[in-house]
Amino acid sequence: MPLVHIYKLKTVIVAVSFWLLFCPNIRPDEVSSTPAIDTYNKALRLYEAKHWDAAKEYFHQYLAEYSDTPLYVTCLYYLAYCYQQLGDNKQAVLLYHKVIDQAQGGDAFWAQVAQKHIEEVLGR
Hints:
Elements: H1 3-22, H2 34-48, H3 52-65, H4 72-85, H5 89-102, H6 108-122
Helix pairs in contact: 2-3, 3-4, 4-5, 4-6, 5-6
């Protein structure tokens, strides 16, 4: 098997493993609606492209409209990170604390990452 195919296969295995490990409770029928998925995907694409301001707006929209979905804590974390990247450390820390307060079960990963970012922002 060529090296390129092995690399792609390893990438897929890592991605699937991450999904199964950290998102086991999310089933497609639980995400409330197509508009929720669309909003989340727009926010995530902007986040990945490091367009922090634009991503922040879509994460705010998602959190306001779809607070009862399994992706709520994930979006809260991403929103906090956007604020951190924009230099608004006070708002970032407030949101990271909210992530920690609301993370349960499968979302415990986000609480751990949020705690590390709080320590980073506060210089501990």
